[in-house]
Write a structure and sequence with these properties.
Layout lengths: L1 H21 L5 H5 L5 H18 L7 H5 L12 H20 L6 H16 L6 H36 L3 E7 L8 E3 L5 E3 L14 E7 L1 E2 L2 E2 H33 L11 H18 L1 H10 L5 H21 L5 H16 L4 H31 L3
Antiparallel strand pairs: 1-4, 2-3, 5-6
Length: about 375
């Protein structure tokens, strides 16, 4: 009975932790560029995540393969106590990073926990060749590729915008005031075309937001930028959920003691609810770190970062490469910071430290829990 409780707790807790740390990553650039406020961005992330989780029901036949992350450990090692230890260890690792406001990788946490449990059960069952070639290489290269692609693409798009005669319009906002187009005048002077009543509130910082002015084929450029930005954000959230939900549900579905098999959509539904609630109730700290604390983003920069994230994540999924959405999305924002020259090295250093510590922490906790369950006779 205790083992079943650990399996259920590990699955639900892992779903919650995954949602809390990962759900907002697809829409982080929308919030960071002030295209959407936090609540609306969170609604978009939740809807796209739930949609991706629902679609994952049709991928249930590949759950065990997905969960084992390209067969990092032998299938015979995936017994009930191992699965319980992996779920609980990965959950604790991800939740700690979330509490600290650090974006981290569920794939890293799961893999560390898998390897840790395998070291206790049978170290010879770890497929080191697959671990290095099919897992380590994509995870190490993907953020570097994301940084380079984002920085290069933004430079190209910026020059195309300038040559097309599309101008960048600044708005000066205080508190809840409506955006006011700010027009440079004679030296020492400026005038503003008021579109709404100016509201000034004490204790509120001043924010300048860039928007685009001009048309392409009769459509306002800013409207096009926003539409593509929304679609790319939704695509990232959708793809992430489609990949992660089966991976989490497999803890229950592959447990011999339960004998459920893969044809149990209610388990995926349970995980979907846990992922959605975790993201809805506990995303704020990671959202603030990714959206506002790494660098300042305008709408064009946010769109560029999200396009690269969407292409890399969806492309890697198509090729079966286990890249981390966290690494790709953060790498894209790092790439923008390399171009605009605005970055907080302290925050970047903390994020990189969290990435480096996720796998060994998952390994240590996974090994400890597996040893404990084994010695308790669970």
């Amino acid at each position: 009975m205790m083992l079943i409780a650990c399996l259920v707790l590990g699955t639900i807790w892992l779903g919650w932790s995954n949602g809390a740390n990962d759900n907002f990553k697809g829409v982080a650039t929308l919030y960071g560029s002030r295209t959407l406020n936090y609540r609306v961005a969170l609604i978009l992330a939740t809807v796209a995540t739930v949609a991706g989780s629902v679609v994952s029901v049709f991928l249930a036949h590949g759950l065990i393969k997905t969960f084992s992350v390209q067969s990092i450990i032998d299938a015979e090692l995936m017994n009930d106590s191992t699965l319980a230890a992996v779920g609980l260890a990965a959950s604790a690792t991800i939740l700690l990073a979330t509490i600290l406001g650090m974006p981290t990788s569920t794939t890293h946490a799961l893999t560390g926990a898998l390897v840790g449990a395998a070291l206790v059960v049978d170290p010879t069952g770890i497929n080191t060749g697959i671990l290095l070639t099919r897992f380590a290489q994509p995870l190490l290269l993907s953020p570097l590729l994301s940084i380079g692609l984002t920085a290069g693409l933004y430079v190209v798009l910026h020059r195309l915008r300038a040559r097309s005669g599309i101008t960048s319009r600044s708005c000066f906002c205080i508190g809840n005031a409506n955006p006011v187009p700010f027009i440079a005048g004679a030296p020492g002077y400026a005038r503003a075309s008021m579109t709404g009543q100016l509201e000034v509130a004490t204790g509120t910082t001043q924010i300048c937001v860039d928007r685009y002015q001009g048309q392409v084929v009769g459509v306002q450029v800013q409207t096009i930028v926003n539409a593509v930005h929304y679609l790319s954000a939704g695509a990232v959230c959708f793809a992430r959920a489609t990949n992660d939900t089966p991976k989490i549900a497999a803890i229950l579905l592959s447990a011999p003691v339960l004998g459920l098999g893969v044809g149990q959509p209610w388990v995926l539904g349970l995980v979907t609810v846990a992922v959605a609630l975790g993201g809805w109730l506990q995303s704020r700290r990671v959202a603030e770190t990714m959206s506002r604390r790494i660098t300042d983003l305008n709408t064009g920069q946010g769109l560029t970062a999200n396009l690269v994230t969407a292409v890399l994540v969806l492309g890697a999924s198509r090729l079966g490469l286990p890249v981390s959405t966290t690494h790709v999305s953060c790498g894209a924002i790092f790439g923008i910071s390399a171009v605009n020259g605005k970055r907080d090295w302290r925050i970047i250093g903390r994020i990189l430290a969290a990435w480096a510590l996720t796998l060994p922490m998952g390994l240590a906790v996974g090994a400890g829990l597996c040893w404990l369950l084994k010695n308790l006779g669970v």
